[in-house]
Amino acid sequence: MTMERPLWPVPKAVQLGWTTRQGGHSEAPFNSNNQAHHVGDSTAAVEANRTALLAGMPGCERICWLSQVHGTQVVAADTATDGNEADAATVAQPGIAAAVMTADCLPVFFWQDDGARVAIAHAGWRGLAAGILNETLQQFSDPTRVRCGLGPAIGPEAFEVGMDVVEAFSDWPGAQRCFKPAGSPGKWLADLPQLAEFWLQEAGVPAIYRSKACTFTDKEHYYSFRRDGTTGRMVNLIWIQR
What we know:
- The chain is an alpha/beta fold.
- It has one domain (3-154, 206-240): CNF1/YfiH-like putative cysteine hydrolases (4-Layer Sandwich), CATH 3.60.140.
- It has six helices and 16 strands.
- The chain has helices spanning 43-55, 125-130, 132-137, 163-168, 192-203, 225-228, and strands at residues 3-4, 14-19, 62-64, 66-67, 74-76, 84-85, 88-91, 96-102, 106-112, 118-123, 146-150, 160-161, 179-181, 188-190, 207-210, 234-240.
- A hairpin with a 6-residue loop joins strand 13 (179-181) and strand 14 (188-190).
């Protein structure tokens, strides 16, 4: 099992990272570290991957798994059971990981500056436009004490969208800088991480960190639904170490 751990300045007790597609038990086309049950992979392989994942997470006893629907619901991982329909989770209890799965969508990590609360959001363009970042940030009492990190997602040179997506963000801060014409008529290249960063800055978050990895172009390390169609999922996790 392979997990990437970015060198972001998080409080001592806070742990975060994301899996790659390497080092697991799944066979093609899910090879090899798929963390999702809903994509058609072997149940036994996914459970083996999840068991190995948890064993390699220091100070973590449980992962709160969501059923993601590209919405704006946030659950409390401290008390939630697995399978809640939600696209974000927050946690203040040590030893429980908030988690979202991705294969092009943007994972957004949140942590309070004293490490007392953390959260994570699954931000595809629909959830982002609908307000998933706002709903997640509302779980903290003061946005100026929150720091954020943007994990691997489809990059600005690969995410081709239609005018409906451009229009969905027409009133967002800096939106005109996040879209540029693509090669096809009526198509645009969208910068999903930059859209998120501009919104978080406008909301008062003082520090935002980025992985800058593109899931679409880096086939060796990341799953990409847009690239492959039938594929696995990475999981992005944040927890307060027990």
